[in-house]
């Protein structure tokens, strides 16, 4: 079952051709890592997958919705396809628990007790149940990023996009965040991850996409990718 399908997708920023004839199908349960030089279009590609970027031409189907169709509710796509950013943007004036329960309460209309129960289970998953009542300023960057992952999971997404989730972290924090991502992958989440962490790619991803100059140059299963000379 495919989760995301690109058919001859093009993206222009003004005159700049950022994505060139992209054809890709990502199935449910896949963990795909996207690599490539800075400026090659990785982030642009990722942001098209939940409608943060529009596409200029071609067809893009996400979770069976056509993103070019004006009738498609882009907010539903964004609920179904979560995104974890390099900078986590937690609400500074809310506790960790409140950061995780806010969207489920406002958007999914979950009641307080239910959303808190689910949030505590997610904070447990990311190893931060004991920080539920702390404020973000009391956390390390790595802990903040783990809260951001819990917050994304709280929306019960069908897929999660990660845009360089460890690039802003001190080296000693990176492992804990990657471990959480590994757990999320093991639970069967469809994940598309832009990262320079090749160890994570080799260990967790089933597939690797290499971009350069707005094009997908390689799209391989992880084993054969790492077998290249
Ligand atoms: P990567 O994630 O691989 O570093 P990006 O997708 O961020 O690449 O960017 C690809 C190219 O598109 C870069 O040359 C960048 O400057 C340009 N670009 C990205 N976003 C925009 C935008 N909103 N408007 C104009 N150009 C952009
Ligand atoms: P859409 O995908 O809805 O067409 P864009 O992503 O093209 O929207 O627009 C995002 C904003 O980022 C634009 O206002 C654009 O001008 C601005 N921007 C311009 N150049 C860059 C760049 N090199 N990198 C990132 N953002 C840029």
Give an overview of the whole structure:
Helix content is 35%, strand content 28%. Helix 3 crosses helix 4 (112-125), helix 3 runs parallel beside helix 5 (141-153) and helix 5 packs parallel to helix 6 (171-186). The strands form 2 sheets. It has a 6-stranded mixed sheet with strand order 6-7-8-3-9-10, with helices on both faces. The chain has a 4-stranded antiparallel sheet with strand order 2-1-4-5, with helices on one face. Strand 4 (57-62) and strand 5 form a beta hairpin. The chain has helices at residues 42-48, 74-80, 96-106, 112-125, 141-153, 171-186, 198-204, 222-227; strands at residues 2-13, 16-27, 31-35, 57-62, 65-66, 81-84, 159-163, 190-194, 207-212, 215-221. The model has no long low-confidence stretch (mean pLDDT 96). The longest helix is centred in the last third of the chain and has 16 residues, at 171-186. The chain is α/β, with parallel strands linked by helices and 229 residues long. The structure holds adenosine-5'-diphosphate (2 copies). Residues 13, 16, 18, 36, 38-44 line the site of one adenosine-5'-diphosphate. This is Amino acid ABC transporter ATP-binding protein. InterPro entries: AAA+_ATPase (IPR003593), ABC_ATPase_HisP-typ (IPR030679), ABC_transporter-like_ATP-bd (IPR003439), MetN_ABC_transporter-like (IPR050086), P-loop_NTPase (IPR027417). Belongs to the ABC transporter superfamily.
